Amino acid sequence: MRKIFYLKVAKKNELIFGRIAFIFGLIAFILAILAISMPKFDVWTTLYSVIFAVFAVGWGFWLGIIAIVVNLINLLIFSSDMFITPGFAIFAVSLILAQIIGLVVLVKHNKRHSRVKIQAHS
Fold first, then answer.
1. How many CB atoms lie within 10 A of CB 61?
2. C-alpha span between 40 and 37 (Å, rounded)
3. Confidence of residue 60 (pLDDT cuts 50, 70, 90)
4. In degrees to the nearest 10, what's the CA dihedral of 84, 87, 92, 94?
5. Which stretches of the chain are DSSP H helices?
6. Which pLDDT does position 84 carry in this prediction?
7. Is residue 121 a part of any domain in this protein?
């Protein structure tokens, strides 16, 4: 009886966490698309997008990866005219580093999360 209860609670928690991770991945993806279409808010939306993408583990993993890749493409290709302005180069490099660090953290965290198995307590 006790094992069944723990398994039900663990599956319910995993389901709730999976839905939240999917929502975080979806928010990160939407913010990445908005960063392309609204260049005025490009810097802040890319930062918010990488923050949400880092927490998109499990069901939202691929949405988080796609959001970070879209942010990198946006920063490297579409926002190249902003790199020319003085004082923005250091900020642009830090944004690119934040995207790369976010990608590494997301992949590492997802590997650790996928190894965790549901174990019944006796």
1. 20
2. 9
3. confident
4. 160
5. 2-37, 42-54, 61-73, 80-83, 88-115
6. 62
7. no
Which residues, 6 or more positions from 121, have their beta carbon under 8 angstroms from its beta carbon? 2, 3, 6
Question: Does a structural domain hold residue 99?
Answer: yes
Q: How far is residue 15's CA from residue 98's CA, in Å, rounded to a whole number?
A: 29
What's the domain range around 21? 2-115
Copy the structure tokens of residue 97: 């580093």
Residue 111's pLDDT band (boundaries 50, 70, 90)? confident
Total count of domains within the chain = 1
pLDDT tens sequence across 14-44: 666 678 888 888 999 999 888 887 766 667 8
Run of H or E including 59: none
Residue 31 forms part of a structural domain: yes
Contact (Cβ atoms closer than 8 angstroms) between residue 24 and residue 52: yes
Orientation angle between helical segments 2-37 and 42-54, nearest 10 degrees: 160
Note whether residue 82 is domain-resident: yes
